[in-house]
Amino acid sequence: MKIRMAVLEAYGGKNPGCACCGEKEIKFLGIDHVNGGGTKHRQELRSRGAAMYHELRRLEYPKGFQVLCHNCNLAKGFYGECPHKRK
Questions:
Q1: How many secondary structure helices (H) and strands (E) does the chain include?
Q2: Quick one: what percent of the chain has pLDDT higher than 90?
Q3: 65 with 32: CB under 8 angstroms?
Q4: Which residues lie below 8 Å from residue 25, measured CB to CB, with a gap of 6+?
Q5: What is the pLDDT of residues 62-73, one digit of tens each?
Q6: Is the pLDDT reported for residue 31 higher than 90?
Q7: Which of 15, 65, 66, 69 has the fewest CB atoms nearer than 10 Å to its CB?
Q8: Rounded to whole angstroms, how far apart are CA atoms 64 and 48?
Q9: Angle, in degrees to the nearest 10, between helices 2-12 and 51-58
Q10: In the chain, where are the structural domains located?
């Protein structure tokens, strides 16, 4: 949990929230690949879960990632953008 929180704070500040809708509940937040490619990246890591968080920390938090809640992240993946962006 510590590594996940460190990564969320690195990309979302001291009190991270969804970059789209503002959701603050930590249990609902994750890391999004800004320009897509999350599925391919996870396949390259050959792992799920914390592997990406460990890699982002090891690489000293590279650009191209952001904090999104799971709903906004899935909507972005399914529809190309979150419905919040259309409002």
A1: 4, 2
A2: 60
A3: yes
A4: 69
A5: 999 999 999 999
A6: yes
A7: 15
A8: 19
A9: 60
A10: 2-86
C-alpha 71/C-alpha 23 separation (Å) is 10
Residue type, 54: H
Q: Is-contact 65 34, C-beta < 8 A?
A: yes
Q: Which of 63, 67, 83 is nearest to 75 (CA)?
A: 83
Under 8 Å between Cβ of 62 and 56: yes
Confidence of residue 9 (pLDDT cuts 50, 70, 90): very high
Distance, in Å, from the CA atom of 21 to the CA atom of 59, rounded to the nearest integer, reads 27
Q: Are 57 and 7 in contact (CB under 8 A)?
A: yes
> Helix (H, G, I), strand (E, B), or coil: what is residue 61?
coil
Cα end-to-end span (Å), the chain: 34
